[in-house]
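TICKET: design request
STATUS: open
ATTACHED STRUCTURE:
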């Protein structure tokens, strides 16, 4: 491998990693440009195994998108409908939303992940009652709800500060924030693909506030559209800088762009090779974020298995009823059982660990007896 690293011009990057020196923008860009993908993957796998060995985490969760009415006009989105009443628009009543959890009554789900459109007319109490209702049904359930984009929207719509919004949601049962809405932080990219929602600095600031209030969160990156390698690495470095200050991010989640049924459908989907490389570079640049999550709904199951050798140590969850990716053309199944996820982790030569949202172990069948 030493010869291959040298031939790819990556010997000094490998030396930095060996010496515990952080990678910077230029190193990250070179990792994206080095022809030998396998050498990049080898380095990432070494970091992954240093941290987690062969352990691979997943979560028994459900996904809920309570409304797809959305005032934002992100070009990549196939899910949003602009107005209530537009073809295909929906907004669940609270009872309908709660029924999604009630229907799973006997399953050992530990997390509900909620992401919504930016609905202009719902009362603030809708969101508070949504959370309170979930906790009434299952007091022990972890509520990972509302992206920073939604938090910014609530603050503006209901005339509150970001901190007030977060505190009121926490009082109603919010336990953590998902990582959506980050896309690519670079202003050039946001101006083109999502000009009318919260910008990169505000997204990061909301997560900073959330971490200060004691919430954990994730950070995503939507890749494979118009962003450059330098903009990808810059995105990672901005997440890393916030993490240096707060330590509140649990996982970095690259999200593969899906080009169907949206206004960027002329673009091709990212290749498998690009997907492998993005996860690998993330593992190498993000030395302070513990987990790299391969979101199997977006990458496809086969690539997700391969990613477990390219830096990723987490497969998200069982994720029933996901809509954002399936409306954008994802051919993946809607859901997997915990046995199916464990089976595919084992088939990839790794060790399945069911975790809760905060990475406490729920079940680890292959753990060595203590
Ligand atoms: O922010 C929307 C992305 C995100 C498309 O925190 C698209 O554990 C690809 O954030 N092609 C929402 N991506 C999903 C999300 C997420 C997923 C898994 C785990 C977690 C977590 C968070 O979906 C949006 C946007 O970046 N998205 N449309 C599309 N056509």
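STATUS: resolved
RESOLUTION: sequence designed for all positions
ATTACHED SEQUENCE:
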């Amino acid at each position: 491998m030493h010869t291959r690293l040298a031939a790819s011009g990556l010997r000094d990057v490998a030396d930095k990693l060996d010496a515990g020196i952080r990678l910077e923008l230029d190193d990250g860009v070179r990792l994206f440009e080095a022809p030998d993908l396998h050498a990049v993957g080898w380095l990432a796998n070494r970091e992954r195994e240093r941290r987690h060995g062969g352990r691979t985490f997943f979560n028994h969760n459900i996904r809920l998108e309570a409304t797809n009415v959305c005032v934002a006009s992100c070009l990549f989105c196939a899910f949003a409908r602009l107005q209530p009443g537009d073809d295909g628009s929906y907004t669940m009543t609270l009872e309908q939303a709660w029924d999604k959890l009630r229907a799973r009554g006997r399953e050992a789900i530990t997390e509900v992940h909620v992401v919504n459109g930016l609905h202009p007319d719902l009362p603030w109490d809708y969101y508070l009652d949504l959370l309170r209702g979930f906790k009434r049904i299952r007091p022990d359930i972890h509520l990972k709800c509302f992206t920073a984009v939604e938090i910014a929207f609530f603050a503006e719509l209901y005339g509150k500060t970001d901190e007030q919004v977060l505190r009121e949601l926490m009082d109603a049962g919010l336990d953590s924030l998902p990582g959506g809405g980050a896309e690519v932080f670079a202003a050039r990219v946001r101006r083109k693909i999502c000009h009318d929602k919260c910008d990169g600095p505000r997204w990061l600031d909301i997560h900073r506030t959330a971490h200060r209030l004691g919430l954990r969160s994730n950070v995503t990156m939507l890749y494979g559209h118009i962003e450059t390698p330098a903009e990808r690495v810059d995105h990672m470095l901005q997440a890393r800088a916030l993490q240096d200050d707060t330590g509140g991010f649990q996982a970095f989640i690259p999200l593969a762009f899906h080009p169907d049924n949206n206004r960027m459908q002329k673009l091709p989907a990212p290749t498998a090779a690009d997907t492998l490389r993005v996860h690998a570079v993330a593992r190498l640049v993000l030395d302070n974020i513990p987990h790299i999550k391969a979101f199997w709904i977006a990458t496809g199951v086969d690539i997700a298995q391969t990613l477990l050798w390219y830096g990723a140590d987490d497969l998200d969850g069982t994720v029933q009823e996901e809509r954002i990716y399936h409306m954008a053309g994802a051919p993946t199944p809607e859901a997997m059982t915990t046995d199916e996820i464990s089976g595919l982790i084992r088939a990839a030569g790794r060790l399945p660990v069911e975790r809760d949202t905060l990475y406490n172990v729920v079940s680890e069948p292959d753990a060595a007896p203590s």
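CLOSING REMARK: The first helix runs from residue 2 to 7. The radius of gyration is 20 Å.
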